[in-house]
């Protein structure tokens, strides 16, 4: 059975790769993108008898442009270490790399006939370079990322030194700040997928970090990613995430949380660490992850993407039609005035929210000790009309993400914050952040259910060694790559990373006594 599954996966991989290559036409390149131990000589031919042009700097070839070369003889592709982009400051706290790094070769190739572009393709060649993680190569005109006027990866013209962490080109949003690129994806040194993408910077405060999170938009003919990165195809957007506020520490908290709490009936993001390169230059480790939007819900839960609404923690619309976010505001207004000691009212609420989903989500956030929640980093979704699918009942459900400030303080009283907010953390005091849980816990039955379930979930995740096993999994994945990443970005140092991973493991055992204390304080003895 195992070998059959491996064979089936291999067949799918070939199909997806062939399909992606078929998007490009009749240019014949002697060597496929990939990892080579020794130098190679690349020849380019065409069946259309046009003129072939290429660039090596990521820009789209344009006949007559200074960086565009006409192809007339094979190209010798050798090991190189000449990097320039990585020495461009990308943040107020940016540090120059401590050394140069082996650089990949990137080719963007076009064929012109009768004054028209008749074909195009691209390649990435890694010579004498090895990685244990999957690799993503992003190729784009460097001005798209690093230009003072239009570059999305730099402080640029919009940076204000008096407000250094919330201004800059990288804080801009929307389609005007999306940039054209192409990407290739490698596993085990072998090309698996290539496509056209749009790239935007992703996140809130973390946009101001030196290494950015990037959102990838499928800009191919299919308008979706057709490779099964997480065992599924059909996503319109993907994330390359920089570990968020954990970027200087364990560099894994968000992904660890997603895996620990997976399977508890609320959404968590699938993902895994990859190494990424930009225009052939080593750019370090990021996490390739799912992105929460309507298409995600269709892919993951088989609901119609045109029949869903996703609302952010601040009651703004994440996905759907303008005005549909008011459906969640209406829920909050109902909860404010409801008396859930009345079973009729409680049953009505159960028809509006998935209570098990709500309870499990809040317990997971609480036992994780998330310092950046509630009132931040949560999303809610529902179908607009009822569908004949398991989750198509038009009840609200919760989505977990951005858990990079989880697993820090074992003594953090996250339950108290979840019920009453924390005056020192303003967004937690918004009434809509706490009102549902606070009102529900006034019902003795729900209260007992909540704390019994807290005990169960703690044991399922922290108490049985599962959490430590997940940390050790990511420790093994990162250990061979983290030193190079540290040399590239200055953080985390290898020693700091080791210390933080050890502390992360210790957190799970230390958290037990505080969870016991929290439960006892609210009247339930273990």
UniProtKB/TrEMBL annotation:
It holds the Pfam family CotH. It comes from Fervidobacterium thailandense. Residues 32-88 form the GH29D-like beta-sandwich domain. The lineage of its organism: Bacteria, Thermotogati, Thermotogota, Thermotogae, Thermotogales. This is Spore coat protein CotH. Keywords: Capsid protein, Membrane, Transmembrane, Transmembrane helix, Virion. The keyword Transmembrane applies. The chain crosses the membrane at residues 7-29.
């Amino acid at each position: 059975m195992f070998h059959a599954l491996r064979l089936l996966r291999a067949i799918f991989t070939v199909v997806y790769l062939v399909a992606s290559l078929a998007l490009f036409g009749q240019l014949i390149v002697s060597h496929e993108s990939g990892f080579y131990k020794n130098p190679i000589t690349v020849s380019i031919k065409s069946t259309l008898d046009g003129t072939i042009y290429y660039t090596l700097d990521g820009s789209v070839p344009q006949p007559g442009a200074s960086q565009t070369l006409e192809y007339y003889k094979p190209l010798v592709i050798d090991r190189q270490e000449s990097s320039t982009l990585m020495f461009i400051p990308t943040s107020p706290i940016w540090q120059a790399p401590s050394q140069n790094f082996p650089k990949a070769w990137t080719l963007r190739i076009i064929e012109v006939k009768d004054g028209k572009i008749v074909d195009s393709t691209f390649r990435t060649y890694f010579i004498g370079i090895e990685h244990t993680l999957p690799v993503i190569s992003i190729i784009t005109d460097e001005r798209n990322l690093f230009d003072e006027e239009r570059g999305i990866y730099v402080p640029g013209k919009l940076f204000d030194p008096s407000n250094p962490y919330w201004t800059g080109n990288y804080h801009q949003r929307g389609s005007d700040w999306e940039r054209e690129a192409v990407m290739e994806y490698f596993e085990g040194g072998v090309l698996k997928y290539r496509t056209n993408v749009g790239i935007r910077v992703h996140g809130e405060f973390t946009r101001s970090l030196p290494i950015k999170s990037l959102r990838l938009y499928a800009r191919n003919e299919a308008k979706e990613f057709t490779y099964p990165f997480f065992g599924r195809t059909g996503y319109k957007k993907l994330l390359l995430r920089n570990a968020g506020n954990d970027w200087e520490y364990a560099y894994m908290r968000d992904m660890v949380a997603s895996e620990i709490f997976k399977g508890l009936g609320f959404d968590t993001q699938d993902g895994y660490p990859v190494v990424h390169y930009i225009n052939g230059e080593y750019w370090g480790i990021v996490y390739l992850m799912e992105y929460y939007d309507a298409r995600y819900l269709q892919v993951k839960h088989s609901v119609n993407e045109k029949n869903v609404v996703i609302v952010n923690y601040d009651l703004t619309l994440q996905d759907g039609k303008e005005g549909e976010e008011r459906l969640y505001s209406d829920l909050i207004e109902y909860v404010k005035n409801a008396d859930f000691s009345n079973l009729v009212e409680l049953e009505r609420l159960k028809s509006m929210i998935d209570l098990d989903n709500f309870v499990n989500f809040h317990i997971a956030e609480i036992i994780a000790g998330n310092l950046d929640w509630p009132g931040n980093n949560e999303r809610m979704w529902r179908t607009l009309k009822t569908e004949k699918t398991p989750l198509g009942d038009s009840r609200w459900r919760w989505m977990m993400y951005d858990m990079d400030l989880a697993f820090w303080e074992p003594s953090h009283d996250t339950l108290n914050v979840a019920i009453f907010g924390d005056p020192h953390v303003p967004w937690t005091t918004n009434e809509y952040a706490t009102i549902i849980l606070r009102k529900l816990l006034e019902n003795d039955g729900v209260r007992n259910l909540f704390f019994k379930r807290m005990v169960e979930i703690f044991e399922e995740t922290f108490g049985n060694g599962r959490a430590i096993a997940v940390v050790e999994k990511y420790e093994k994945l990162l250990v061979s790559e983290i030193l190079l990443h540290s040399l590239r970005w200055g953080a985390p140092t290898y020693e700091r990373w080791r210390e933080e991973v050890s502390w992360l493991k210790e957190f799970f055992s230390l958290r037990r006594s505080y969870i016991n204390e929290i439960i006892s304080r609210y009247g339930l003895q273990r």
